[in-house]
Structures are given as structure tokens and as C-alpha cells.
Amino acid sequence: MTKLPLHASRSNNIPKISIIGAGISGLALACQLAVSKIPFNIYEARNAQTIGHTYSITLQRSALRSLNSSRYLREAVRELRPKTAVDRAVGGNGRVSDQSPKGSASFQAVDRDVRKWLVELLAKQGGFVNWDHRLTAVRPAAEGSGAELCFENQEPTIADLVIDAGGLGSPCFDYDVEAAPKPRLLPYACYAGRRRMRSHDFLDKYSHYFRDGNTIELAGDIATSTPFISLQKVHLGERDQEGHDIELRWVFSRPSLGGHDPLYRPGRTPEEAKVIPPELYKEMLASVTLFSPKKQSMLQQFFDLLDLHSDRILHWHLRVRLPAQQYFATNADRKTFYAFAMGDAAHSVPILKSNGAVQAFHDARHMAESIVALLDCPGGVGCLRLSSTTKLPFRTGEWLREAEDSIQRLRQVHGQREHTTEELLGILGITLQERDAANLPGKVPSDAGKAASEEKGKL
């Protein structure tokens, strides 16, 4: 629990707050609560040394503005880019690509380093993470009010307010009211690879393609439904470290072919993500011909068969989840305790061409503001019983727009037509009637055909 003193006006009005998950959203929320001098506990299933899979994320200025709730946080944000940029080892600032303007507001960072920076920021405010706390159940406390949080090989604890920031697979998202809606798998075959090399080898073979950027993204120039290919460099090492390694990361994604498609494996288990079908290598080599001659020359260099067979490759599932607003409202009120979801635990979009990290920072800010407003209410946590569904801290309208946009971006980079609003809502499991009943704002995406304008007329 944070060691900071409480505001006197809140000293008798503080619920026991527990945050489940020390990802970006959970840690960003913890930092903002600590600045507001609101005590909490934050729990994480992994230990402090566990790295897991690391990814590069694009951070936008709007996301970082979400941390500007205090002068202390604003000053801390200035340290973020030089500490987390994918090319900080060579004094870079995370410039996204050679096409992006110099000094662009967006920059690419390593998600692991962003989490590490948030943990350090929390520690400077007197807070800490309870590592090795794998949540197994959330249930009403046996005596009195509150929730009992049960952890694997740890003592249970009591909380009045549970914030679920545990991600897609969080067990916290089952409150014995209604099972959490499962993520919907999108019809794309997607594979991600990593190739590690010494910096001088990278300079000899690949650096001239990247120029002064860190990412190359390619969509097919010839076919109307084509693969999307992303190439990225990440410097492994600290600033000015001599002879550091570089990791070349690539993503190969294409629409499912339907029927028997060896690359599209919706039923594979997490353990089978490392099992790579041999057809992938053949298809990647063949896909080179779908691009312009200049890009073909570059891809032939990257997609060398010997290098591909040596790469560490994972099969990614591109998924989206957006439960109906009523689901959040029902699960928020458990009579003896309150539970809110945020980040991927509440809504998730495909990790390809998405803004998950940006949404995580936005969620943290809105959740922190809601908690501060709650504690300033004379009734404290009891104010929630009087709140209407629309006043709960769920940004479902914004989440819906982000989910729609992420699907449209996927279709665009794969050379597919955009979906109509009704098609998008069908993918998300929401009907037009449900959206209207929940007062969720929606938009009609552009469409190449007459169907879009007809749909727009209906709305």
C-alpha cells in the first residue's frame, strides 16, 4: 500500500482499493492514485524479474497527456522517451518511420521498458507492486462487506473496490454474475518473427532500408487482397553501449482463405503458438512478387529462407472484444463490493495496427478521475448505488469507436473494402438496437459501394 498521507477530508471516507494487474493500465492508474494520495494495493501474477514477450508500442502525445494530472507526473513524462525508445542505445528518439516527420508527436517504445519506467515512477511516490500474486477468485467476503481476493499460494485479502486491469485472460472478470464475453477471433493469419544480430551485421545488410526510421510497413501494390508486412528494428542495449545487439522484428499477416487454410489456425492452443506450419515460409517467399520491383528487392533480402528458419516465430491471434455496456453495469455492483474493468480486461482490439497502449493510458486517467470524484462524494463508495449506468467509469462509446477503427485499419492495409456500420457491430457482437439502447455513439464508415450510403441514410 502506498505510504503517502491522505487528504484530511478523505481520511474517514477511503475504501480499500485493489488493482489487479501491473500492466501499463494498472501501473498508470496506480501512479495517478499515488499522486492524489489515495491508498491502494496493486497485485501482479508475475514476479519482478519476469520479462515475458516484449513488443514495440507506439505512444502518442494524447496518451502521455493522460499522465499530466500533476506537475510531478508532467516532469516525469519528459524522461519517458529517452528511457524507453526502441533506438535509445544509439541516441535515437523512437522515430516511427523514415516517412514520419522529424520530432513527430508519436514515438516507438519497448513495452517492457514502459512498464519498468512506471514501476520506478510508482516507487518514487512511495508505492510498490505486490509481485507473485496470481489471482484465482473474487467473491463476496464471508463476513461484512467487501470482496475477498484469493491468490495462489498467498493469503487472501479484502477490498471494497476492485479494479480489474488483468488483461484478456484475467480471472477477475468473472464476478458470478455473468461469464465474461469471449474475444472474437478475426479472420487473419498473422505471424511475428524475431531475428537477433550484432549491430555491424545489421549495418551491412539492412540499415540502408530503414534510413533514420525504425519501421517499414508494406501493403501489396498489385492484388486487391494482399499481405501486410511490417519490419522493425529494436536496439538491445543501453545508450552508447558499444557493440550492442539489434533485433529485427517482422510481422506477416494476410486474410484467411477460408476452408482448409494451413496458416489460419483458430483452434490452436497457446502452447501451439510456437508451432509454425512449413507453408508459412513458402508463402512469405511467394508474396514478394505482389509488391513493386523496388520492394521486391528489399523483401528478398529480409525473407532469406535460411534466416527465416532461424527466426523465433509466433502465431498471433488477432482478436477483438467489446462487451455490452449492461455487462459492465451488472458486474460493477456486487452489493458487498464494486468491481470495474479497464484496459484489455474491459475492451481489446487487435495488436496489429492498434492503439492498445494509448487506450491503456486514457483508461487509467478516467478511472483515477472517477475514483477521486467518488471519494469526494459525501456518500463515498456508496455513491455508486445512486449512479446511473452512464455515469459509471466505462468509456464504452470511445471503446466502440476504437474497435471499429482497428478493424477498418486491418481491412485497409490488407487491401479489403471497409465494412459498413452494421457489419462492424456484427463482428463486435452488438446490434444497432443494442447500441442505440445504450446510447453508444457510432459512425458510419466510408464504403466503396452503394451499401454504405444506404446504411448512412438509415442512421
What features would you describe in this structure?
With 459 residues, this protein is α+β, with helices and mostly antiparallel strands. The chain has helices spanning 24-35, 61-65, 71-77, 80-84, 111-124, 199-205, 207-210, 279-287, 293-302, 305-310, 325-332, 356-376, 396-413, 421-428, 432-437, 450-458, and strands at residues 17-20, 41-43, 56-59, 107-110, 135-140, 147-151, 157-159, 161-164, 184-185, 188-198, 215-219, 228-236, 245-255, 312-316, 319-320, 338-341. It has three domains: 8-183 and 320-408, 3-Layer(bba) Sandwich (FAD/NAD(P)-binding domain), CATH 3.50.50.60; 187-316, D-Amino Acid Oxidase, Chain A, domain 2 (2-Layer Sandwich), CATH 3.30.9; 420-458, no CATH class. The strands form five sheets. The chain has a five-stranded antiparallel β-sheet with strand order 11-12-13-10-14. The chain has a four-stranded parallel β-sheet with strand order 2-1-8-16. A hairpin with an 8-residue loop joins strand 12 (228-236) and strand 13. Mean pLDDT is 82; it is low at 1-11, 385-390 and 443-459.
Indicate the mean pLDDT. 82
- Biggest β-sheet: count, sense, barrel? 5 strands, antiparallel
The best one-word shape is: globular
CATH domain topology of the largest domain: FAD/NAD(P)-binding domain
Q: Alpha-carbon distance between the termini?
A: 49 Å
Radius of gyration: 23 Å
- Approximately how much helix is present in the residues? 25-40%
Strand content: 15-25%
Number of helices: 16
- Across the major sheet, the strand order is 11-12-13-10-14
Q: What is the CATH H-level superfamily of the largest domain?
A: FAD/NAD(P)-binding domain
* CATH architecture title of the largest domain: 3-Layer(bba) Sandwich
Number of domains: 3
